[in-house]
Every structure is written in C-alpha cells, then in structure tokens.
Design brief:
Elements lengths: L4 H8 L5 E4 L9 H13 L7 H6 L5 H13 L5 H17 L9 H10 L3 E5 L5 H4 L2 H4 L9 E2 L12 H10 L6 E5 L2 H9 L3 E5 L7 H4 L5 E3 L2 H15 L3
Parallel strand pairs: 1-2, 1-4, 2-3, 4-5, 5-6
C-alpha cells in the first residue's frame, strides 16, 4: 500500500501542520518487552495470554487490556485493586526486560518532519514512564512535554478516538491538518475514528491485513520505506 492515486488525492485535500506519532513500536522497539511482560503478568494469575494477542491490543490502556481479559476469562471486569496490582506486576516485568532501543530509521523520519516545519506530537496509550522519560535523550530536540498525550491523560484510550481527538484539540488542528503514524490495529482504528489520515508501519509480528483491514490509508513495513516517500507525502499534503 505505497502511495497510490487514492492516497495522493486524499493528501492533496490536506493542509498539513502536524504529525501524531504513537510511541511503542513506532519510536521504541519496546513491543517485544511489553508482550513478554503481559504474557508473564497474566500467567501469574492463571490467565492464558499470548504475544500475538498483546500486539493486537497494543495502544489500549493497561486497565483496558486487563478488563478485556477478565471479561473473557471470568465474565466480569477486574476490580480497581486487581487492575492496580496486575498492572504494577506488568510494569515491573517490563523494566526487568532491559532497555528498549529505538526503531531503525525513525530518527530520519522525525528529522524530515521537523525540517519541514511540522509540529510533532506523541499520542500513546502507554504509561511506561521509563520510555516517556527517555524521549529527550533518544531523540534530542524533537519532542516537548506540551505536545504529548499519554495513558495519564485519557480515560478511554485506543481504539477509542479520544487520544487523537485530545491531540487535535490541544493543537487546535482541523481534521485535514494532521497525520497519524501508527503500528497497531487499535491505533489505526483510533486514528481513522478521529477522522485523520493514518499511516501504518508494520514493525511487529502482525499480518499486514490486521492493519489494512482497520482502514490504514498507507502501509509500510519499516521506517525506511516511509522515510523514502515522506517528502512526497509532505509536499502533496502541505499547502504552500
């Protein structure tokens, strides 16, 4: 799903001013750690969960993931105490995995976006403070705290459009003024539900159709592919 006539037409109707980036799997190669941590955390309380399921639920808040699995397993939502305890276990297991590196070539994508005078936002369902705090050192001069929407800001989280609607409201952007860069099915659903042009970069273990079937406007398999077409995307969508 590289640039085609349909995508170029949609981009041509835009007046691009901002790009909204997801964090896990887009900026940091942290999803293998998240998946492993979720599998082990659920295993500790006797719930069967696998890594593919973790990738499919990426972008959902921690409580959302826990409640979905409790509903599926026990036919009820988790209590507030159960959510708190299990999420703490998951975060501890995540930290034990070590330091997540950055996604290859995402620095080139971010640099190109910044050089073209576009605002850069983080829109993530993650509450992993170790990664949020690492943004400045990993990507110097790219992100600012006033342009971030995290798990601490939202009530619903992805796949609800709330995180992207919050980013739009924060920057006072119209629907045709922002583009989403995602790697997760729920993130694509959220971006499209917010009415935004959504680019999917499949950096994980999912089948491509998990992203295209959710409405991704463009699909790439790595950041280099996106970076190569990014100048055309920006030129087409940014009014002079």
């Amino acid at each position: 799903m590289a640039l085609d006539e349909q995508a170029l037409k949609a981009l041509g109707n835009m007046d691009l001013k901002a790009v909204f980036f997801d964090m896990d799997g887009v900026l940091f190669n942290s999803m293998p750690f998240h998946a492993k941590a979720w599998v082990e955390a659920f295993k500790s309380i006797g719930i069967d969960f696998n890594e593919y399921e973790a990738y499919m639920r990426e972008g959902m808040t921690g409580n959302g993931t826990i409640n979905e699995m409790f509903q599926k397993t026990y036919g009820r939502l988790a209590t507030e105490e159960e959510c708190k305890k299990l999420y703490q276990t998951k975060m501890h297991l995540f930290e034990e995995c070590g330091k997540a590196g950055t996604i290859p070539d995402v620095d080139k994508v971010l640099k190109t976006v910044k050089e073209n005078g576009l605002d850069i936002y983080i829109v993530t369902g993650s509450g992993q403070k170790s990664l949020i705090n690492k943004l400045d050192s990993a990507f110097p001069g790219i992100f600012s705290k006033d342009k971030m929407i995290t798990a601490y800001d939202v009530k619903k989280g992805k796949p609800d459009p709330e995180p992207y609607l919050m980013a739009q409201a924060k920057g006072k952007y119209q629907k045709n003024e922002a583009i989403v860069v995602e790697n997760a099915p729920l993130g694509v659903v959220a971006g499209k539900a917010a009415g935004l042009f959504t680019i999917a970069v499949n950096t994980g273990i999912l089948k491509d159709e998990e992203l295209t079937s959710r409405g991704a406007d463009l699909l790439y398999h790595n950041m280099e592919e996106l970076w190569e077409e990014l100048p055309t995307i920006i030129k087409t969508s940014k009014k002079q």
